[in-house]
Amino acid sequence: MSSPSKNIESVLVESRVFPPDARASTGARIAGMAAYEALCKEAEQDPDGFWTRQARDNMVWTKPFTRTLDESNAPFYKWFDDGELNASANCLDKHIGTPVEHKTAIIFEADDGAVTEITYKDLLARVAQFANALKAQGIQKGDRVIVYMPMTIEGVIAMQACARIGATHSVVFGGFSAKALQERIIDAGAVAVITSNFQMRGGKELPLKAIVDDGIALGGCESIKTVFVHERTLSDWKRVEGRDITFAEALEGQGIDCPPEPVGAEHPLFILYTSGSTGKPKGVQHSTGGYLLWAKLTMDWTFDLRPEDVFWCTADIGWITGHTYVAYGPLAAGATQVVFEGIPTFPNAGRFWQMIEKHKVSIFYTAPTAIRSLIKAAESDEKVHPKNWDLSSLRILGSVGEPINPEAWMWYHRNIGHEKCPIVDTFWQTETGGHVITPLPGATPLVPGSCTLPLPGIAAAIVDETGKDLPNGAGGMLVIKRPWPSMIRTIWNDPERFKKSYFPEEMGGTIYLAGDGAVRSADRGYFRITGRIDDVLNVSGHRLGTMEIESALVAKTDLVAEAAVVGRPDDVSGEAVCAFVVLKRGRPTDAEARQIANELRAWVAKEIGPIAKPKDIRFGDNLPKTRSGKIMRRLLRSIAKGEAITQDTSTLENPAILEQLGQAY
Ligand code: WTA
Fold first, then answer.
1. Whose CA is nearest to atom 8 of ligand 1?
2. Distance between CA atoms of 156 and 328, rounded to whole angstroms?
3. The complex's ipTM?
4. At residue 621, does pLDDT exceed 60?
């Protein structure tokens, strides 16, 4: 890899441009910039007509809609709201009687390399049968169901089966703790949990069902009547009589026909919890009609999906990327997709490349953090370098979740795409439901590190605090000025927080504030995301609120008096969590500090999940505060980065503690 100084330079003046080559643009749905611009123009001049056409052409409605966008109660926008449809029918039933019926829907590769394939027809039968099993346990339209499952065909079936009966799922990532699970169960008022006994990751068997038990035992989860347990492994697990039921038991005697329940287009398909800058995670609520339309459309637009493609999105179903580009989008678009249970470094760091060769993957969609860690691995061990595998099946590459630095982009382009595959650097968020700013593989000239231009119908702009547009070249806040079909509908149980978080009054109350900083290039007007402008960290593409981690630390009441958390740049994970801690017992000795730091990491893993564990912990007699008692976070960020302190520290109440904070554990 090149030196850090070169990285910085290339971020600042990125002048390389990669126009789409003929392979990508020939036959593309949106071929060339003129076609893209024509779509944008149409969406801008006649949004109603544009979205009506898209929703009719791309979706099956059991009751056609007559209203496209209802803005009467902005920012609670409604789309296609008098129409009815079912999401599962739009992913599965729709293909029956077409050539897709007998096509492979999912190629599942287990952690140990075992492969299982399932066709659309068989997937429909299994979803319908599991939907019947849900109904047999009394689960009804409108109920909330927690899904806490590994990457498996059953995970996708669980989500699709909920959708089929009109139950709203809330998937909780399998790496989250019992406490995090309990909080989500309570907030969602869930009636059931669907889980697995264990999950297999990197050759290890990790408990899931036992964590569900622990979460429920924390209290307040009386709404849970049933826990469905998929027996992923042969290992024993503890059954709670009268509440737990295995998949096999639940499916017994259930037929494979289950008519999809029609729901209104605005019916909540799912709630997905994500971190915000304050307080507890927010339950981002998505609709059925608008969300699914976007999942399908972006498969066609961003990935230019063709019938013979093998699509592989490596994201877990516990994140939004795994919702839109594993559980819904590929199925709605009739794709063959790879679902992978394991991790990129097991049995070695060549796993992704080996799987691309084995399954002839043509569209590969992953996160910059994975790319960066695989670059590192390939550079230290020739045997896992991608050159050892045949990657010629690849046609399009994608990146998601965090900014991709130009050096990682170039490596991806050369070593994985062999300079032939466009890279779609897709910018979006849990709240946007699907891609909003992204290159189109058959149209957009690419600039490394830039997510380029908004999709048709997305009125993205960069503004100052008052909502005023800023010129190209000036950094500001990213906003989307007009509603779009797959946008967040509300925060579950907290409409006021929804308005406050995303539609600030100072900007008029109807403009969506993304929470990211961005800048447009002077020449092309291309967007480059500069990172979150709030207290949200992005660690390996996972969103974490600094406040959440602070609350977890101070909840260790026997040890911690006060804590502050900031992020610092990290070569592989993008950002790393850095905690500043004041202990009740005073500043520890060196040996004590090491031990306490590990204890605190284990504690945070238990409170939130291993992904939230602070990488660095620093101890002081106090935190650097102004005389009025405000923690000087900017200063903490400098310390975390190991920078020389250049800020004015004259307002600091106790300058001596800066020295104490110099050592990280
Ligand atoms: C960041 C993940 C730069 C951004 C889909 C956003 C990105 C947050 C990109 C959302 C990208 C996502 N370039 N930054 N291509 N994609 N982000 O909700 O900070 O888990 O606000 O959704 O990830 O994270 P979330």
1. 429
2. 9
3. 0.99
4. yes
